[in-house]
UniProtKB/TrEMBL annotation:
Annotated ranges, domain Glycosyl hydrolase family 31 C-terminal: 2-69
Name of the protein described by the UniProt record: Uncharacterized protein
Gene3D superfamilies reported for this sequence: Golgi alpha-mannosidase II (2.60.40.1180)
Domain DUF5110 span(s) in chain numbering: 89-164
Length: 226
């Protein structure tokens, strides 16, 4: 286990460190329920996983139940440490559990130290909490802490990716979203949701919001399985 590590409390990474060609890998998973970040396959922890396929040059990244993982679009930084793509949309990957979990996303200009000296940053609070009668409550609080920063977007688009069974309905701020039958239909829409039956992920597109605003999502599921 000395070559694997935790990234925070929710992500376990087991890089392939051998120089020779390797097609299978082994690693230890701590206790709990885990989901393969790349394939969506679920694992029960507390044991060593053997025969993990790494022939496609992907190493194991496992998300623990309860994980909240915010993600920007893929990008790179120039010589001045400036990101070459906007931080939009913000995709939030969520692995619901039977207890409340939360994540504080801190953002600043990425260049200066004004987040220390002038309080120039923004924290967004992301919370996921199980409710009664198969309900999952998700709350996003923009500008939860901080005073903003230079270059901070005025508006933001959100995509929520909820792992688990297909929802019965999805509601954003008490407005019921339309279910799309195809992923392409969701791409063209301003909001709505689509369930991928292969990966068991509900993709939820939220209508553009003010970056410092807040909103709530209610996902009604068919069962209480997490």
């Amino acid at each position: 286990t000395k070559h694997q590590f935790m990234c925070g409390n929710w992500l376990m990474i087991a890089p392939v460190y051998k120089q020779e060609e390797t097609t299978e890998w082994s690693f230890y998973l701590p206790h709990g329920k885990w989901t393969d970040f790349s394939t969506g396959k679920e694992y029960e922890g507390g044991k060593t996983i053997t025969g993990y396929d790494v022939s496609d040059y992907k190493y194991p990244i496992m998300a623990r139940e309860g994980a909240i993982v915010p993600m920007y679009p893929e990008s790179y930084y120039d010589d001045n440490r400036k990101q070459q793509k906007p931080r939009d949309p913000l995709t939030i990957d969520i692995y619901p559990s039977q207890v409340k979990t939360q994540f504080e996303l801190m953002e600043d200009d990425g260049v200066t130290y004004k987040f220390k000296t002038d309080y120039r940053f923004n924290k967004t609070l992301i919370e996921c909490e199980p409710g009664k009668e198969n309900i999952i409550n998700i709350n996003i609080t923009g500008l939860y802490e901080g005073s903003g920063y230079k270059g901070m977007p005025k508006n933001r688009n959100y995509y929520l990716q909820i792992h688990g069974d297909k929802p019965k309905s999805v509601t954003i701020d008490e407005i019921k979203l339309k279910e799309m039958k195809k992923a392409k239909a969701l791409e063209k829409a301003t909001d709505g949701w689509y369930f991928d039956s292969k990966t068991y992920i509900a993709h939820i597109k939220v209508k553009e919001k003010k970056a410092n605003s807040s909103f709530s999502a209610i996902i009604l599921r068919n069962s209480t399985d997490y």
